[in-house]
Amino acid sequence: ISCVFQTKGTSSFGKRHNKTHTLCRRCGSKAYHLQKSTCGKCGYPAKRKRKYNWSVKAKRRSTTGTGRMRHMKVVFRRFRNGFREGTVPKPRRAAVAASSSS
């Protein structure tokens, strides 16, 4: 029995010490390919963010509502009140009574 091994597995993996991917400037994940100079997660440097419908969970991780929503939570509140502007609230009776007594 001849023991001729095709060492394509474990012993070959030990020789790998160069990094193909580094941190992405846009999304922060370790998916920016140095030779291709593109991010595998967000598609940087492309202008549009990389997203596909075949991965619903991946879209859920980085969509509206996963961050602070500094602007959108104000818009939701304004929507509930019909986007009113330049109005003055009606004087409340307790506030009127307190101001007149003092």
UniProtKB/TrEMBL annotation:
Q: Which UniProt keywords apply?
A: Metal-binding, Ribonucleoprotein, Ribosomal protein, RNA-binding, rRNA-binding, Zinc, Zinc-finger
Would you say which domain of life the source belongs to?
Eukaryota
Q: What is this protein called?
A: Ribosomal protein L37
Q: Cite a single GO MF annotation.
A: zinc ion binding
InterPro entries for the chain: Ribosomal_eL37, Ribosomal_eL37/eL43, Ribosomal_eL37_CS, Ribosomal_zn-bd
Q: What does this protein do?
A: Component of the large ribosomal subunit. The ribosome is a large ribonucleoprotein complex responsible for the synthesis of proteins in the cell.
Q: Which GO terms describe its biological process?
A: translation
Q: Which organism is it from?
A: Cyprinus carpio
